[in-house]
Amino acid sequence: MQRYFVTPGQFAGDRVEITGDDARHIIKVMRGKLGDKFIVSDGESREALVGIEEMDGTCVQAAVIEELEMKNEPRLAVTIAQSLPKGDKMETVIQKCTEIGAVSFVPFLSERTIVQYDAKKEGKRLARWRKIAKEAAEQAHRNRIPSVEQPLSWKQLLATFSDYDAVYFCYEKEEGSQIGDALKPFVARALQEPLARASLLLVVGPEGGFTEEESRAAEAAGAVSVGLGRRILRCETAGMAALVCALYESGEMGGV
């Protein structure tokens, strides 16, 4: 069933108003008609099955048929910090990791980042990334839209490490600890607190990987260096692989 996200203010009692691109999608693409049902979520605390009551060219008014439980979010809150890759690879990272279950994305610049960062153009790119996250969350029946933050410098990213319960630095030269080894004790501790949602940051490098200096700086800032197996993964694949490992270990995919 089709799903749309609205702001909390668009819910008014037992009715919801849908405007903008979503209203146009319902009217023009889905060819909506009175009585058609779909799911609406405010991305915070309310989700409902609704039915269309009124429509015009720019607005859809729907009535709440049934309140729904918001139960599709993972217990482990995983953020993907991705060094900006070339082309549209960041779009792929955001789309696929949203489908899998990431709660937020932090683009950043590292020493081997190839992309030329242009702050003047960043607003449009950030708006596109956020739109991709919204559409992927709707497609995957997420209860919330993952946040996509403004790109950070490497030093700014390091300063955020203390905001998370754990930080794993995905490093292709790591020969010791693998991500599964690091995840098991962390997840076991996290799941002992049933009402808490543990936070995990996965740090992924650009096409050329991280430098040894960056590896040392990440560990000094509190990150645990982990490998992702014996094979070298593309930068847009590494975050997905690490995310799947984390959610599997936390029981999202039968790991517990």
Biggest β-sheet strands, sense, barrel: 6 strands, mixed
**CATH classification, class level of the largest domain:** Alpha Beta
Q: Which secondary-structure class do the elements indicate?
A: alpha/beta
- Examine the coordinates and then state which fold CATH places here, giving the name of the CATH topology of the largest domain: Alpha/beta knot
Distance between the termini: 29 Å
Q: Quaternary arrangement of the chains shown? A: single chain
* Shape label: globular
Quote the average pLDDT. 92
Low-pLDDT segments: none
Annotated CATH homologous superfamily of the largest domain: SPOUT methyltransferase, trefoil knot domain
Please give the CATH architecture of the largest domain.
3-Layer(aba) Sandwich
Q: What's the tally of helices? A: 7
**SSE string:** EEEHEEEEHEHEHEHEHEH
- Give the tally of β-strands: 12
- What is the percent of helical residues? 25-40%
Radius of gyration from the alpha-carbon trace, in angstroms = 20 Å
Strand content: 15-25%
Please, how many domains? 2
Strand order of the largest sheet: 1-4-5-6-3-2
What does this structure look like?
- With 256 residues, this protein is an alpha/beta fold.
- The chain folds into 2 domains: 66 residues, Ribosomal Protein L25, Chain P (Beta Barrel), CATH 2.40.240.20; 174 residues, SPOUT methyltransferase, trefoil knot domain (Alpha/beta knot, 3-Layer(aba) Sandwich).
- Helix content is 34%, strand content 24%.
- The chain has 7 helices and 12 strands.
- The strands form 2 sheets. The chain has a 6-stranded mixed beta sheet with strand order 1-4-5-6-3-2. The protein has a 6-stranded parallel beta sheet with strand order 9-8-7-11-10-12, sandwiched between helices.
- A hairpin with a 3-residue loop joins strand 5 and strand 6.
- Helix 2 packs parallel to helix 3 and helix 5 crosses helix 7.
- The longest helix has 21 residues.
- The two termini are 29 Å apart.
- The mean pLDDT is 92.
